[in-house]
Write a structure and sequence with these properties.
There is one protein chain. By secondary structure, the chain is mostly helical. Among the domains are: 99 residues, no CATH class; 38 residues. 61% of the residues lie in helices and 2% in strands. The chain contains 16 helices and two strands. It has a two-stranded parallel ribbon. Helix 1 links the parallel strand 1 and strand 2.
């Protein structure tokens, strides 16, 4: 909480979470930035150690088991009721009880019914104040202690401050004494050579500028943050700035790719217009053109219209038929404005998928030695129709995603902290 002059009155608030998907990245970037401005910091637990440093992991076992028990009870009740209805035979089949779960069962599964004992009310049973406080104490969250290090799943090392260090040193000393004893009796003690395992020491960059540069280079992931900064809030200035720089870099790369696609299409358009102009000037039919010229004209028409399916026009006869039956003046269509870059990317992605699907269908047809030719042709026709449906759905999803990304990019304002930016430039 801040006063009217921006001074912190109370807080900040630390929200301890795990390091799962969605905690970092563009999807939560704006939210984390706003949360930090309000004094709310999301702090991850240690990587790959959820079972010993997250209190919810300790509490969820009882909750899940109780939910499973209630679910089994519901299914058993419906099985018995359906058996009774089948035995009586008075109800039509479509009116009899269905042995299945629906969203309407969630209330009973999670919270139970008013008349149920506490053992059948999962939430009340698992999240009592006593159990919540016990889970806090077990992982050392409240009060803040090192209790999590005492759990059985934690591996200990001969390191200063480790609660298991003394026991390990005694074990190492006993092992050395045993090796010396067997060596004194003439045995080869080298077969018992062993040392206490030690964790890999990470040399982390120091200073905001070096950490910022490292995260920008490697990407802002849970692992890279740990290796670069150790334990750090997900919405600290350095992480937010590195994410912003990555997003700007990715956006610039995408714009460069789109510009390249636009340039390639512009060149294709010029070549296709030249070929069509020459054909019209010499009064040639499409069947009089070479295969490369036909492909150039047809491919340009497909890309200008944002359509997929050009890869299926492999034969000259198919290309000639397509151009002869084109519904408008080809020269005028070839002179149309270039489509937006997002549509070009969608077409390129869809065409790649079409090529892969066509290759798979061709391989399956080639290897099928037991099917008659007519059946094989029907199967290929069905596969082509399925490819068309998949490509149409893919193109629609891509257009929606591109539109959403453009809206988000227009709304997103990236402000790298002045100190971090200046340090990064100095580095």
């Amino acid at each position: 909480m801040y006063d009217s002059e921006g001074e912190l009155v109370s807080g900040p608030v630390v929200l301890k979470i795990d390091g799962g998907p969605g905690r970092l990245g563009p999807a939560s970037h704006v939210w984390r930035k706003r949360a930090a401005a309000r004094g709310l910091f999301t702090f991850p637990g240690l990587q790959n150690a959820t079972s010993v440093n997250q209190e919810m992991d300790d509490l969820y076992g009882t909750f899940q088991q109780t939910c499973d028990d209630v679910t089994n009870d519901i299914v058993a009740e419906r099985v018995a009721k359906r058996a009774h209805e089948d035995e009586e035979g008075t109800l039509p089949h479509n009116k009899r009880t269905k042995v299945q779960l629906t969203n309407c069962d969630l209330g009973r599964i999670v919270c139970g019914r008013a008349e149920d004992p506490i053992e059948a009310r999962a939430f009340e049973r698992a999240f009592t104040p006593e159990k919540v406080l016990s889970a806090f104490a077990k992982v050392g969250a409240v009060p803040l202690t090192r209790a999590g290090l005492d759990q059985k799943k934690v591996r200990h090392e001969d390191t200063e401050g480790d609660p298991g260090a003394d026991e390990l040193r005694e074990l190492a000393a006993q092992h050395a004494a045993n090796k010396a004893a067997v060596a004194a009796h003439g045995m080869d003690a080298t077969v018992f050579a062993a040392a206490l395992p030690r964790r890999q020491l990470i040399e982390r960059p120091t200073g905001e500028a070096a950490q910022f540069a490292s995260l920008v280079e490697s990407g802002v992931t849970h692992t890279s943050v740990w290796h670069t900064m150790g334990s750090a809030a997900h919405n600290c200035d350095t992480i937010l700035a590195a994410e912003a720089a990555r997003m700007l870099g990715e956006r610039a790369a995408a714009e460069a790719t789109e510009a390249e696609q636009q340039s390639s299409l512009r060149l294709l358009q010029e070549q296709a217009i030249a070929a069509e102009t020459e054909r019209d000037h010499e009064s040639k039919e499409y069947e009089d053109l070479g295969l490369s010229a036909l492909k150039m004209i047809a491919k340009c028409l497909f890309q200008l219209n944002g359509k997929t399916g050009f890869s299926k026009l492999g034969r000259k006869a198919d290309l000639v038929k397509y151009l002869d039956e084109y519904g408008e003046d080809v020269h005028k269509a070839l002179s149309a404005p270039l489509p937006t870059p997002g549509v070009l990317a969608a077409v390129a992605e869809a065409e790649t998928a079409a090529d892969a699907a066509a290759a798979a269908a061709a391989a399956a047809a080639t290897n099928d030695t037991t099917t008659e030719d007519t059946a094989r042709a029907d199967a290929n026709a069905e596969s082509v129709e399925e490819v068309d449906r998949q490509l149409a759905a893919l193109l629609a999803r891509r257009r929606i995603a591109v539109a959403a990304a453009n809206r988000d990019a227009a709304r997103l304002t990236v402000a790298v902290p002045a100190a971090t930016a200046a340090a990064a430039q100095g580095a």
